[in-house]
Amino acid sequence: MALIVQKYGGTSVGDTDRILNVAKRIKTYVDDGNQVVVVVSARSGVTNDLIARAKAFSENPDEREMDMLLAVGEQETIALTAMALHSLGVKAESRTGAQAGIHTDLAHTRARITEITGGDIKELLDEGKVVIVAGFQGINAVGHVSTLGRGGSDLSAIALAAALKADICQIYTDVSGIYTADPRIIKTAKKIPEMSYEELLELASLGSKVMQARSVEFAQKHNVIFEVRSSFNNEPGTIVKSEAPSLEDVVISGVAVDRNQTKVTVSDLPDKPGTAAGIFSKLGEAGIIVDMIVQNVGRGGKANLTFTVSKDDAVKAERVLREACDNLKGANVSLTGDIAKVSVVGTGMRSHSGVAAKFFQVLAENNINVQVITTSEIKISVGISLEQAELAANALHTAFGLDKI
Ligand code: ASP
Ligand code: MG
Question: Does residue 244 lie within any of the structural domains?
Fold first, then answer.
């Protein structure tokens, strides 16, 4: 007998039929003798709809009331899921976040979990009941309803799995798992059977938003093994855990493409300590995130700095930098084009040499010019022209053996 935490996202509980399908799936786990705790999201679209209703009164609605409002979405689905289980003859009871003892700090709309007591979940399980818990919501120290930030049901499920010491946490969604690349871009993309938390975090930060990043960090910190899988089929999904021996011979896990980057060049900067610090602190103060960076030393004690920002921040970045450059005589700012960031990610990079060599060789063979580079211990990213992004991603996917894992 295992203790399983299952989380069903908004599309999985999107309507009555889907809720019934979810209940049928839960029943198979119960019939196999497992104890099951289920965390559900609001039906897809409901949270957005509630936000829109609030905005009819104010652009910045009171945050305490906002949480009171948004928590409604999950409360609908816990009750309906429990009823669906009853209709199948399965004993089940629903619990709000507060009833499940999900305690948070005092922040509203993006509260952090401080403690999970589980409330009476253990007793309910011992009575042979399935417990359905509202995701995304908690209760703070002064007894008010709080919510955990958009996508927060993932966090509720992972944190509950940690607190209850569950054997596994299953995250049911509308995709069958995590893929080696976006299947819309790369036809040969494959589902990854097992990967590490770090890899998923890198891939998530590169735009494949299957799970809320905060919940993956939480899982990593508390060593919660989870599986991302689909509620629309019975295929095994992707198991995410800390680095395991079985992962060792896989060098690269995935290739990602981000088409949302703009290059900014600041030229003729004084080539002396503190210049870059000055530039980047101005951008930081303006809330602009800088991604890839290169610096070329020019002539006569001048340097050029090129970096990328998200396309949406480009105009703001240019304005902030022009102001900063007023104090740096002769320095110039220009937006130097939209580019694509193509990355490969894999914990195997730590133990295998030659990954960078192969990466750049593949680009060279395909006549792809690299404009900016950035790396981490488990990732290499390059900024290249938008037109060549697909070519690069496909060539790298093949070269690193991902077409046939
Ligand atoms: N219903 C919340 C949202 O849409 C939480 C979740 O779905 O995870 O953000
Ligand atoms: Mg979600």
Answer: no
C-alpha of residue 229 to centroid of ligand 2, in Å = 13
Domain-embedded: residue 376: yes
pLDDT in tens, 62-104: 999 999 999 999 999 999 999 999 999 999 999 999 999 999 9
Whether 12 lines ligand 1, by a CB cut-off of 6 Å, is: no
Which residue, among 140, 152, 147, 156, has the nearest Cα to 224 in the 3D structure? Answer: 156
If you ran DSSP here, which 8-state letter would residue 386 be given? G
Radius of gyration in angstroms for the set of CA atoms belonging to the chain, rounded to a whole number: 24
Residue 178 dihedral angles phi and psi, to the nearest 5°: -100, 135
Q: How far apart are CA 36 and CA 34, in angstroms?
A: 6
Residue 120 located in a structural domain: yes
CA distance 280 to 298: 20
CA of 73 to the centre of ligand 1 (A): 9
275: containing domain: 254-404
Integer CA distances (angstroms), 32 to 1, 38, 342, in order: 8, 16, 44
Answer yes or no: are the C-beta atoms of 256 and 291 closer than 8 Å: no
Q: Which amino acid is at 39?
A: V
Cβ of residue 97 lying under 6 Å from some atom of ligand 1? no
Task: Give the model confidence (pLDDT) of 312-358 as tens digits.
Answer: 999 999 999 998 888 777 889 999 899 999 999 998 888 888 999 99
